[in-house]
Amino acid sequence: MNKFKLSLMTIVIAMALAGCSTVRPLGEVKMKDAPVVSGTILKDLDLPAPEGAPIAVAVYGFKDLTGQRKPSSTLSLFSTAVTQGAESYLMKTLQEVGNRQWFTVVERVGLDNLLKERQMIKQTREIYEGANARMLPPLTMAGVIIEGGIIDYNSNTLTGGTGVAVFGIGTQTQYTQDIVVISLRLVSVQTGEVLTTVTIEKNLLSTGDGVTGLKFFNNYTQSFELDSSQTFNEPGNYALRSAIEQGVLELVKKGERQGLWKYKKPTEYGIKLDPKK
Fold first, then answer.
1. d(Cα 252, Cα 264) in Å, to the nearest integer?
2. pTM over 0.85
3. How far apart are CA 214 and CA 205, in angstroms?
């Protein structure tokens, strides 16, 4: 009878551990059928407005300079470890930083398509309107160019795990950490001088939780076996977007400290400063 109670208790403990290891992470995952519109990740993209008009900036690309492939311990993968279209994240961040008051982003990634479309409009107007055809307004010229890219990606920079077992039943947790590094530099169009540069690192964390159990009964003629596990991998695009947003913030702050631009004074917002402070 005691053996039966001990066996029953073992099964109950195993089921409880399995429930804890699977229900907790799954409860944090929200399944959505509708597409999700991605906003900014950082909550402090608000900066003081610039003193003057927004800065016209051009982004020609933000390439993967790492040459890294997706990490795998069993397969030889040819997919890249990071996205090849990171300039989309960079342009979106430049538009939204400081409540859309800091930068005017001009199209340069698809410049060939833009020029072809303008040429077609020009030719069509000349055909139908003749010599008096209306001219297209000139393109907005950028005062600065933002260059840079994803310069490093390191896999498994930190690995580890813990586990414990009682009566043949136990739980274990494993984790690994990757690091992605980006670089941004601000270049003057008139002089070609690199005005300022920043480098940002971001960690990617992957965790795995599981429970295993093996118990024999009736003189080792019957057995109870349990194996349950699941992993969570932080999305690479989430880490990259976070690094880009932090990089743009640091670029603006560093430029202000170097005297490249100035923040609008608080009095211009209608806030009266206390002369005693």
1. 13
2. no
3. 30
How many domains does one find in the chain? 1
Q: State the residue range of the domain holding 80.
A: 2-30+49-108+145-261
In a domain, 221, yes or no: yes
Q: Backbone dihedral region of 167: left (phi > 0), alpha (psi from -120 to 50 degrees) or beta?
A: left
Span 14-69, pLDDT tens digits: 555 545 544 444 334 444 444 545 566 666 677 888 998 999 999 999 988 887 76
- Measuring CA to CA, how many Å separate 266 from each of 110, 261, 270? 39, 15, 7
User: Where on the phi/psi map is residue 70: left (φ > 0), alpha (ψ -120 to 50), or beta?
Assistant: beta
69: three-class secondary structure by DSSP: strand
Asked if 83 contacts 30 with a C-beta cutoff of 8 angstroms, the reply is no
Tokens (6 digits) for 85: 């279209």
Distance CA 199, CA 275 (A): 39
What is the distance between the terminal CA atoms of the chain, rounded to a whole angstrom?
80
